[in-house]
Amino acid sequence: MAAEYAKPDLAPRKNVEIPSEEIMGMGHLACPGCGCMVALRWALQILGREVYIAAPACCLAVCDGPFPYSSSGVPFLHCAFETAAISASGIRAGLDMLGKTDATVVAWAGDGGTFDIGLQAISGAAERNDDILYVCYDNEAYMNTGVQRSSATPLLTWTTTTPTQAPKDQPKKNLGEIMAAHRIPYFATASLAHYDDFRRKFERAKATRGFRMIHIFSPCPTGWRANENTAIELCRLAVETRIFPLYEVEDGTNYIVNMRPEPKPIGEYLDYQKRFRHLDDAAIARLQQGVNREWERILMKERMTLPSVDR
Fold first, then answer.
1. What is the DSSP string of the chain?
2. Fewest C-beta in 10 Å: which of 34, 159, 187, 244?
3. Among 142, 136, 116, which Cα is nearest to 40's?
4. Where are the chain's structural domains?
């Protein structure tokens, strides 16, 4: 790396109100610092016990526990890698037949099962406007199977299939734009470093009918080659450097940017992760230009006034 930055401030932050009921149990099998299990714990606290989860092959499918054990505390369906969305749609149809219309059905999948392998099922469920909440915990690679690149892996990143001599040479796929093109009722990004925003978005998603998606930035210290005690700080820096903007899209047309931080240089984020240690100044400048361009694109869309969608 071209520069050294101060280690993150891990001192306690201000208190925030968190629901007191714990639905998720102890004993999950996640690696230290895993963002996915923090996100699931919070999501269940917010959504309540009337939740049914469909999860494909991913870190969560392993971390939840081996049959017949489960740490999630709610009904949990293990499904094929490409079928999280359609499996959730099937659960939704069955619950509706039983009159359980108030239950929340959640498809919970990683970036591999969302950006790549499961995109066709997501597109179908979104086009039909199936009444499910799709949550993508994005750790930017196929972490469960050995840190292979996905289409959510950022430009110039090291993975086991894009080594430092030939890092990924394509930018990260824009999931928000794909879902906005489907005109779904609600899409939002969320960060583990911004709990109030995280909670509000899950409450909004619970109260909304139709297809909803929340895209969570979910560090994987193991795959990112970072210290496990920096996961939350990585989330904070991703927002503060504008690498991962916090925003919402209503009906595919109304963009709302939730935070407008004074941007920090992306080097402060990159420097905590050995997956970026091969980058020189020119490569970092290239990434910074991409971040700036995508930020301006979101602001431009927020300024646009588009007609609402008739669902």
1. -----PPP--S--------S---SPS---PPTT-HHHHHHHHHHHHH-S-EEEEE-SSHHHHHT-STT--SS-S-EEE--TT-HHHHHHHHHHHHHHTT-TTPEEEEEEEHIIIIITTHHHHHHHHHHT-S-EEEEEE-SSBTTTT-B--TTSPTT---SSS-TTS---SPPP-HHHHHHHTT-SEEEEEETT-HHHHHHHHHHHHH--S-EEEEEE---HHHHT--GGGHHHHHHHHHHTTSS--EEEETTTEEEE---PPPPPTHHHHTT-GGGTT--HHHHHHHHHHHHHHHHHHHHHHH---PPP--
2. 159
3. 136
4. 35-302
| Single pTM value for the model | 0.92
Decide if 311 contacts 251 (C-beta within 8 A): yes
The region that residue 295 occupies, defined by phi over 0 for left and psi between -120 and 50 for alpha, beta otherwise, is alpha
CA distance 179 to 253: 11
Q: How does pLDDT run across 68-80, given as a tens digit for each residue?
A: 889 999 999 999 9
pLDDT tens string 121-150 = 999 999 999 999 999 999 999 999 999 999
Cα torsion 130, 134, 140, 143: sign? negative
Measured from the Cβ of residue 299, the count of other Cβ atoms closer than 10 Å reads: 14
Please give the pLDDT value at position 224.
97
Confidence of residue 17 (pLDDT cuts 50, 70, 90): confident
Percentage of the chain exceeding pLDDT 70: 93
The b/e string for 234-245 (b: 16+ C-beta within 10 A; e otherwise) is bbbbbbbbbbbb
Residue 25 CB neighbour total at 10 angstroms: 14
**Would you state the pLDDT for residue 3?**
41
Q: Which two tokens stand for residue 180?
A: 């906005």
Give the pLDDT confidence score for residue 49 in this predicted structure. Answer: 95
Q: Which residue has the tokens 């919970």?
A: 108
CATH fold group of domain 35-302: Rossmann fold (3.40.50)
